[in-house]
Design goal:
It is a single chain. The chain is an alpha/beta fold. It has a single domain, classed as TIM Barrel, CATH 3.20.20. Helix content is about 35%, strand content about 15%. It contains seven helices and eight strands. Strands 1, 2, 3, 4, 5, 6, 7 and 8 form an eight-stranded parallel sheet that branches. The protein is globular.
Length: about 260
């Protein structure tokens, strides 16, 4: 059972080594302004943590763009086109998997970029977040053709640049029990995910330069999940060996 003391011990090991762990926060499936979105933005502001909203272009509203505008700690990323599953029956869900021609996929990604550009201005980054964190590997080298310069999925990256002109930075903790009741996975399991990536970075098992990513889904977060996020952000703010980066920082892209 992983607890807060273990996480503090890991961060102390970073500090003894003269290092500081970088962190970042991505929230998926943004589209409309809802009470859950307000709760998300309030939590990020309360803890002064940069937040990247992965926005679904086809359902994004002007009200969402207005809510993000003028908030320097917020950036918007592109979350697919419609978050629509095109995988074959029985296969894992994917909007941009191996089931369709690349030309069709690229046209949809570009259409999504244009749609977001119409709504958002400065906070929008050319970073693609594939729905369900899945994308055809053969499509990745083609992303720059659609104006994409960054890619974000889930789990430790295997390469900082999976293709020329495409920088990848992923997330590593998702506190939702997607295979269960879609509630909070529990404090121990959530802490274990953070601890594992931090430890693997420090010991060289994975890319030490990839920031440890928190992935949330405000639309399905339950009260236990919100309470954990509040406690996690407060806990990390008290640690000397870690700090938060914005999406613009980690992808090295000017908003």
């Amino acid at each position: 059972m992983t607890d807060w003391a273990e996480l503090a011990t890991e961060l102390a090991a970073w500090e003894r080594a003269g290092r500081r762990a970088t962190l970042w926060w991505r929230d998926d499936d943004a589209g409309a302004v809802t009470p859950a979105l307000h709760r998300l933005l309030s939590l990020a502001a309360q803890h002064a943590v940069p937040l990247a909203l992965a926005v679904i272009p086809e359902v994004a509203t002007p009200a969402l763009a207005a809510a993000v505008a003028g908030q320097p700690r917020l950036t918007a990323l592109q979350h697919g086109l419609a978050h629509r599953n095109h995988a074959a029956d029985g296969a894992k869900k994917a909007e941009f998997g191996t089931d369709r021609p690349h030309a069709v996929a690229l046209a949809e990604i570009e259409a999504g970029r244009r749609r977001l550009a119409e709504l958002f201005d400065a906070p929008l980054l050319p970073v693609f977040v594939p729905p369900w964190n899945r994308i055809d590997p053969a499509l990745v080298p083609l992303l720059p053709q659609a104006g994409i310069k960054g890619l974000s999925r889930f789990s430790a990256r295997t390469a900082q640049y999976p293709a020329t002109g495409v920088r990848e930075v992923n997330c590593h903790l998702d506190p939702v029990a997607w295979r269960g009741d879609r509630g909070f996975i529990g404090e121990s399991a959530a802490l274990a995910a953070v601890l594992q990536h931090l430890r693997d970075r420090r010991t060289g098992v994975v890319d030490a330069d990839e920031p440890t990513g928190l992935l949330t889904h405000h639309a399905v977060c339950d009260d236990a999940g919100w309470a954990f996020l509040d406690r996690l952000l407060a806990f990390l703010a008290r640690q000397n060996a870690c700090y938060w980066l914005s999406a613009a920082d980690i992808f090295r892209l000017a908003p």
